[in-house]
Amino acid sequence: MKQHRGSRVFDIFNYAFLGLIALSTLLPFIYVVLVSFTDPIEYQTSPIVIFPKHWSLASYEFILSTRTFLNSLSVSAILAIVGTACSLILTSGLAYTLSRKKFRLKRVFMIGILFTMLFNPGMIPNYLLVKELGLINTIWSLILPVLSSAWYVILMKSFYQEIPEELEESAKMDGCTDIGVFFRIMLPVSVTALVAFGLFFAVAYWNTYFNAVLYINKDTLRPMQVVLQVLLIQASTQVGDPSVAQMLQSDQMLPPETIKMSAVVVASLPIIIVYPFLQKYFAKGMMVGSVKG
Description:
By secondary structure, the protein is mainly α. The chain is built from 14 helices and no strands. The chain has helices at 5-36, 40-45, 58-64, 67-99, 106-118, 123-132, 150-161, 165-173, 178-189, 191-206, 210-215, 224-237, 242-245, 256-285.
């Protein structure tokens, strides 16, 4: 169909406007990358960097050789891997159970799940619960309180309800138990949903900050986002946590700003690298639980 002149003008204006918005969100990250690769001497003489004349990896070499940052990186990686795996198993298992018609307590569980969406106990009761369970200063204090989400359970429940029950019945005729049906049949056919929700869980665990501030007092258990925040504050005020002070002092006298920018790039890079490989599953998984006709 031929477009009218007004429609073409509107499309051009629309694309240009959306392109400017996309560029405005991309420019800060580009600036961070440029500063992180800027030669320290050049940055000290000219703090405003548009495009560096001399490139350098000194800031990256420094933060990647610092024990504090590497330890926080490993903690965040463990959180993202272990936490995502546990969250997917719990969420998918609970959603599959609630999607079965023969489960008699389905209504009771659904009311309890919906209740958590409407009422939040708050920070102090959550802290007291974590403390009474003996999870303070443990990695599980950052996983168990956010192990699942009521909204994700409801979406995955709708997804499992769309799977024909004949598939489950045929598997049981072949001798599969309920657990066998779940792990051998249901999980393989729900790969798109698992990848989509897994990406959400992984990003949330990777960006863990507030719970770590509440529940973690040990320097060795601090995730990367907490170390980055301390680094930003200390670089700006020259006061702060002694465990991070070494990241702002080196024999090469690196500017704190280049160290901060390098740390931000390293923190963002894993998610940026993983997302393109999961994009096709992510696009399909976003339709989980939607009404199809």
